Amino acid sequence: MPVEDISPEDSYEALRTDPETMLVDVRTDAEWNFVGIPDLSATGKQPVLIPWQLYPSMQVNGAFVEQLRRAGATPLTKLHFLCRSGARSLAAAQAAQAAGFPEAYNVADGFEGPVDGEGHRGRVAGWKASELPWRQR
Predict the structure, then answer these.
(1) Rounded to 5 degrees, what are φ and ψ at 84?
(2) pLDDT tens, residue order, the chain (137 aa)
(3) DSSP 8-state assignment for residue 77
(4) Which residues are CB-contacts of 28 (< 8 A; sequence separation ≥ 6)?
(5) Three-state DSSP class for 21?
(6) Which of 40, 20, 37, 39 is nearest to 28 (CA)?
(7) Structure letter (DSSP) for residue 126
(8) What's the whole-model pTM score?
(9) CA-to-CA dists, residue 62 to 66, 75, 97, 103, 105, angstroms
(10) Which of 58, 79, 130, 132 has its CA 20 to 30 A from that of 40?
C-alpha cells in the first residue's frame, strides 16, 4: 500500500488529539541542532528523533527500524515521518510499512519545504511555513 501524504497542519492536529500518533523526525543531528525541531510540548509529546541517513556519510541508518521499535512504535502506532522537504521521510515511511508498521504517513513538504524565489527554505510550505510550533534545540 502506498504511503499517504499528510499536511503539516493535519499531522499536528492528529498529534494533539490522538494518543496513538507519533511524529518521527528523520533528519540528521546537524539539521536538528542548526535548523530546529518541531515543538510538540502543547500536545504533551516530544518528536522522536531517528535519522534515516547518518551524517556526514548520508548512508542509510541500518538500525532505523530497531530504533523505531525502541522509541515505542508498535503496529498500532500512527507514524508521521518528517524530514526537510519530504523525500527522506517518504523513504522512511516506506521502510516502516515494509517492517510491519502499516500506519506510516509522510508529512508533506517536511519541516522546511521547497526553496522560495530567493533560495530560502521555510517560507513556501512545510511545518515552519505553516506556522506550527518549533524551537531551536
Answers:
(1) -70, -50
(2) 899 999 999 999 999 999 999 999 999 999 999 999 999 999 999 999 999 999 999 999 999 999 999 999 999 999 999 999 999 999 999 999 999 999 999 999 999 999 999 999 999 999 999 999 999 98
(3) S
(4) 51, 53, 54, 55
(5) strand
(6) 37
(7) S
(8) 0.97
(9) 9, 20, 16, 21, 20
(10) 58
